[in-house]
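Technical annex, item 7. During the second reporting period the consortium partners agreed on a shared format for inverse folding records so that results from different sites could be compared directly. Each record opens with the tokenized structure and is followed by the designed sequence. A conforming record, contributed by the partner at site C, is shown below for reference.
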């Protein structure tokens, strides 16, 4: 007759104690890493916003006769990206029809529910690894709005001169709205940014 032997109470308690110690050591560091990633993304988008806001002021003052983004003389996305390169340093650029080197394996759009989309945009990678996508609308000259504000899917995007998509950590995941991907619009006279609503986990 075969005798079945289970774990003793002492063995179970020791195992649970070991699991508890491991959890106590690792979980706080995981939470800290998530918090640091979020803070780093927020700091990067603020820095990027400030950089492009300052560059836009320079462009409307130095590059146009009407002192508005409506008369920059660009006809496509690549032109507006190159115009900003006079005031913002890039380490790499990719035209709107050849994005592979800048996306570096990341999807142009994170998932079907995301609104920040790099598809068809002219891309640039900044020195800190931030990926930026430019979309230019030459018809903004006919609109009355000078500064555009929007959240996620912009209702006024047709009135923006330039829409800028930003991925704060480049090709690295999660490539999702309000986590590492944001966008802002540039109207005739400047930039307005409102952070996207937090994405659900």
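Designed sequence (site C submission):
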């Amino acid at each position: 007759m075969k005798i079945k032997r289970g774990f003793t109470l002492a063995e179970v308690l020791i195992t649970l104690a070991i699991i508890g110690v491991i959890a106590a050591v690792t979980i706080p560091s995981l939470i800290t890493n998530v918090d640091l990633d979020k803070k780093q993304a927020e700091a990067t988008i603020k820095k990027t916003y400030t950089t492009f806001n300052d560059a836009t002021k320079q462009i409307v003052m130095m590059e146009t006769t009407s002192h508005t983004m409506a008369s920059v003389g660009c006809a496509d996305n690549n032109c507006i990206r190159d115009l900003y390169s006079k005031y913002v340093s890039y380490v790499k650029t990719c035209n709107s029809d050849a994005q592979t080197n800048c996306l570096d394996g990341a999807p142009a759009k994170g998932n079907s529910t995301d609104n920040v989309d790099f598809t068809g945009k002219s891309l640039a990678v900044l020195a800190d690894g931030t990926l930026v996508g430019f979309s230019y609308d030459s018809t903004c000259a006919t609109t009355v709005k000078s500064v555009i504000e929007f959240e996620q899917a912009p209702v006024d995007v047709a009135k923006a001169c330039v829409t800028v998509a930003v991925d704060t950590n480049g090709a690295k995941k999660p490539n999702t709205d309000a986590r590492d991907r944001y966008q802002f619009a540039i109207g005739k006279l400047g930039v307005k940014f409102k952070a996207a609503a937090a994405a659900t986990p």
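The longest helix spans residues 9-62. The helical segments are 9-62, 77-84, 100-103. All partners now use this format for quarterly exchanges.
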